[in-house]
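Justification of resources, computational component.

The compute hours requested in this renewal are based largely on the per-chain cost of generating structure records like the one below. Each record pairs the submitted sequence with a full structure-token output. That output is archived, and it is also reused by downstream analysis tasks.
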Amino acid sequence: AQRSLGMVQQDLASSVRDEGTTVRNASTQGLMRQSENCPKATLAALHNVTFRHENFVQVDEGEEGSVDMALCLSVSKWIHLNFGDVGLRMLFDKVYKLLSPGGLFLLEPQPWKSYKQAMRKQDMPTEVRELLPQLKLRPDHFQKLLLQE
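The structure output for this chain reads:
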């Protein structure tokens, strides 16, 4: 269940933890090329953007306060289905610790009905199918959970 987590980091080198982590600096991916649609100043601001493709729940945490913004787009459902309520809370705790003061966490939770659709449309392992009925946290309560804990 590996997905991408986009982060704006102060130090690219500190994000490389192990060989299972793929880190891409935006400037090395051709995003720094100037075009008429993207001002030069905007492209220059991307020099400190990195994308990590890893199983975020299972990797070591990075340096506390080292991330200015964490993007979690279309992945919370998969973390929830594969690691349960505990895994989802672990994700939220890890992101909170990594964020610098005033840092932002942009979460795109998938609706609960998409969890059930995933079970119907995809060949899910038995352990994931057995975990679904045990999930107590619901996507429409994630914001409250994040703000209260």
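The longest strand covers residues 99-108. The helical segments are 40-44, 76-98, 112-121, 126-131, 142-148.
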